[in-house]
What does this fold into?
Amino acid sequence: MRKTPAFLLSGALATALTIAALPATASDAGNGEWTQLKGAPAPISNPLKGFFPFAPDDGSELPAAEGSLPYTMEWTYFPVSDVVTAKGVYDWSKVDKMLDAIASRGHQAVFRFYLDYPTRKSGVPQYLIDEGINTSRTYTVFDNNRVSFSPDYNDPRVQEMMLDFVKALGEKYDGDARVGYLTAGLIGFWGEDHTWPMNGEVSADNPKGENWMPSDEFRAKLVAAWDSAFNDTHILYRLPTEATKAHHMGYHDDSFAYSTLDNVDWHFMAHMKNQGEDKAWQNVPIGGEVYPPLQTCIFSQPLNCPGAEAEKAQGRNFDMIESIKATHATWLINHKAFLVGYKGADLERAKEANALMGYTLSAKKARTTVKDSSVTVEAEIANTGLAPFYANWPIEVALVNSKGEKVVSKTIESPLPSVEPGSSTTVEATLDLSSGVGERAAQTDSAPVSGDLTAVLRVVNPLPNGAPVAFANEAMGTTLPGYLSLGTVSLGSSLPAQPSTPKGNESSTPGGSTEAKAATASAEKQSAEAPKTKLASTGTVGGAVLAIAAGALGLGALLIRRTHA
It folds into this structure.
């Protein structure tokens, strides 16, 4: 699992940039004026974060109850038997059908595979049952009534299947735009990595003190398999171990706000601190599920959850806000909240909790600098939330004319995963107005560019219709939906838009073709009258610098430096 993103530009852009040192401060990078940008309250909803429900089993959209919150992800389970149809044979059709259904609503999926789900038919592949694996571990706890069985996780045949399955799963879905996060699953009831009360302790439900969990050795081997199979999609485990720590897994608390805080030794944060993983959120996501009995009542004041006082006397928490702050949680399943909804003050508190989770991005200041036929756009972006923006989604910077057409744009790799809460980064892109690219260029081959252009920026959701990343700024969506407006570039004279030189006409002599030289000369002449820039008022910041500059020859510079705001 990649813990710290590698900031390397990909594809064609990578070939167009070179790496070099930058000035010591952002203000040295150009001759424009920094202008503050006005902030706004944190968005209630954003992609890859917040509360979300289960997707219906048939893939349909969950009917929204009155008082429901907006959401951008949906949870689902899959039995391994849906995919593994024979040894080493995989049928992904049911998974793809569900992922496509969720994606059709602009949402990413979060899911888990299981072998044993109480009250559901076994998820163990049929070929293993036919081979004669142990199926005698039936049980009645969790209302199962012996419907399913717990497989022998130490059986070499079961272990081989799991390791091969994880490898195939990664080959199929690592980096898939339809997938938000994966929880490791496979082992234990519901795939939650536990078999309690069959945990080796004698109890009324386990009179023989049986332990149905696999060996620690195999559990570590399975963690390593997840790490090997997934480089882009984050994998989350129920609780930390030495293996999950070594392989930089994320984590999820399946009883969130019930047994989260560390006032009891078996609570989630107690485990995290004991393993030294209480700061894991700095690099990997933390998720979970609001404890189901609390989902409809957790935001009531005073708390009106049935049996709450007796549970609190035994150390339970029932404190949603403090649990979110302690874990730095990014996402939480909260299914009943969408089935029932909230009202009045409860709804407002739910909105507050939703906005609190995960990242909150805010552009604090921006500037544009015009030189020859190019415009350099810079924006300092702060993370004022509780966790990083973990996804390596690229950033698009563009100039838009008065008709709402993108005249030119550039997509760059994002530094946002490295920006911790309280830190900032400056994104810089130089846009070449002579290149003849963009929506306008598709309509007019060589018409000049003139007048006012608005600089905009967005984080690109790789899901084509996915929810846009909303910044906590007043200018979010004011020029184009899903884009943050940074300010206006006023071109004092028109700049020529020249189409790219066709392949096969490039000159082998220094300086390029005659056409290229003419275009350069024309641009230099146009720069005699220096265009002016103006930006709307808004924020403040100091932070890291990612500077990416690309001119007409496709050269640039890249430097990352992070400081705390």
Remarks:
- The first helix runs from residue 11 to 15.
